[in-house]
Amino acid sequence: MIYFQSLTRNDLITLLQPLSQIKRSSDMTPDQLEVKAHRQANYRAQQIFHWVYQRHVTEWDEMTDLSKDLRVWLKENIQIFRLSTRQSRQAMDGTHKFLWDLVDGKTIESVIIPSALQEPEQELGQEPEFQKEGNAFAGRPAKETVQSVRWKRLTACISSQVGCAMACKFCLTGIQGLDRHLAVHEIVTQVFELRKQAPITNIVFMGMGEPLHNFENVVKACEILIDQHGLNFSKRKVTISTSGIVPAIESLGKRVDVSLAVSLNGTTDEGRSLIMPVNKKWNIEKLLNACRNYPLGSHRRITFEYVMLQGLNDSLEDAQRLVGLIRGIPSKVNLIPFNEHSGSEFKRPSDQTVRIFQKYLLDRQVTATVRISRGRDILAACGQLRSVFGTARGTEKHLDWGSNQSAV
Ligand code: SF4
C-alpha cells in the first residue's frame, strides 16, 4: 500500500496513466495516445489533490467526481495517511503544540506559532498584547482559538526526523540523538493535520531534526507543500532551517525553490564548534560561501538564526564579527535569546545585552529582529522540542510533556 501523502503530483500521474481510458481513433499514433493518456491522468491527479489537500476529504468514496472504477482502484492501492494526536497543548500566548503518534510507536512534535497583528518583535522585555491578557483562550471553544482573526501569521513548525544527530549543545532534540528519518508522508501530513486545525500561513522546518540530513524526503515533501494543486504554499513561505550541512545547502538550491534559514550561533570557529559539532566538518567560512552561492530570487534573503548564549556569543566583538561575516549576503539576522531549561549548561543573556547587540547590527544596516519565544510554558519554544518517550541512546526517559517544569 502506498501512502497518498508520499506522492508528488507527477508520481500520481505516473500511477494513474496506465488506467486512463482513451477512446482510440484509427488515425492516432502511439505517441498521441500517450500524450492523451498523460493529460487525462494529470487531470485526475489534480482532482484528487484538490479533494485531499484543499477540501480535506480523506475517504475515496466521497470523491464523487471520480469514476467508481477509479475509486475502487484508489481504495485498493493508495491509503490517505493520518497522524493521530497523542496530546495537544496550548500555551498562554496561543502557541499550540501537538505530539503525534507514528505507526512504529515513535512520537514527533509540531507547533503552531501565532503572530500577533502588532508584532512587537523588537521590544524586548515587553510582552505582546495578547500575552498581557493571560490565557486569551481560557474557557473558549477550541474552534475559536484556531480560527481566530487575531493573528497575522500562523506558522507551522514541523519535524523532519525523530530526534536529531547534530547534537547542538543548546538543543533538547540534540540531546535525544537521532532515532530515524521521517518519511515523506510523515512530514507532509503534519502540515495536512495542522491545516485542519488552523489557517496555516507559513511553514518552517525548525521542529525536531536537521532537515538537510533527511534531504530527499524533505525535498519531496517541499514539492508537495508548494504544489499549487497540493498544499499550495508560496515558496517564500516555506523555510528550511539548517545547522549547516554545506553540500546539502548547495544541492538544495538546485532541487527546490524554498527559503533558507541557517543556524549560525557563533562568529568564530572555536566558539561555534563548542556548541555545534557540525562546525568541525563545515566551518563558518565554508558555510557562508555556500550561503553566498545559494540561488536567491529577487527580494529574497537568507535568515541567519543566532541563539544568544550568555558569555559565549553575545559580546559586542561577536556583533562586530557577525557584521563582517555576513557582509554581501542578502540576509537578515534573527536573534534568539536562549530558552533556559532545567539541566541546561547555558544561560540566557540579559535583555539589555540583547538590545545592545541588536542595536549594533541595526546601526550597521543589518536587519536584525529579536524573536520573542512562544510557548515557553509548554516547552514549545525554539530548542525545546523533544519527543515524549525514548532516546536514540535507549535511555527511556519520560518527559513531563507540556508541563512547565523544564521551561523558564
Ligand atoms: S538545533 Fe536543530 S540541528 Fe541542532 S540538534 Fe537541535 S534539532 Fe538538531
Structure notes:
With 408 residues, the chain is of the alpha/beta class. It has two domains: 2-79, DNA polymerase, domain 1 (Orthogonal Bundle), CATH 1.10.150.530; 84-378, TIM Barrel, CATH 3.20.20. The protein is built from 14 helices and 14 strands. The strands form three sheets. It has a ten-stranded mixed sheet, with helices on one face. Strands 1-2 form a two-stranded parallel sheet. Strands 7-8 form a two-stranded antiparallel sheet. It is elongated, with a radius of gyration of 23 Å. The structure holds iron/sulfur cluster. Iron/sulfur cluster binds next to helix 6.
CATH class identity of the largest domain: Alpha Beta
CATH topology of the largest domain: TIM Barrel
Unreliable runs: 117-149, 387-408
Helix content: 25-40%
Q: Can you give the mean pLDDT? A: 85
Précis, in short:
The protein is of the alpha/beta class and 408 residues long.
Which descriptors apply to this entry?
binds iron/sulfur cluster, DNA polymerase, domain 1, 34% helix, 2 domains, disordered C terminus, TIM Barrel, alpha/beta, 408 residues, 10-stranded mixed beta sheet, elongated, two-stranded parallel sheet
Topology:
Layout: E1 2-3, H1 9-16, H2 30-54, H3 68-77, E2 78-79, E3 84-90, E4 96-101, E5 107-116, H4 129-132, H5 142-147, E6 151-157, E7 161-163, H6 172-176, E8 178-181, H7 184-197, E9 202-205, H8 215-226, E10 238-242, H9 246-255, E11 259-263, H10 269-275, H11 278-281, H12 284-293, E12 302-308, H13 316-326, E13 331-337, H14 351-363, E14 368-370
Parallel strand pairs: 1-2, 6-9, 9-10, 10-11, 11-12, 12-13, 13-14
Antiparallel strand pairs: 3-4, 4-5, 5-6, 7-8
The protein binds iron/sulfur cluster (SF4).
Iron/sulfur cluster is lined by residues 164, 166-168, 171, 173-174, 208-210, 243, 263.
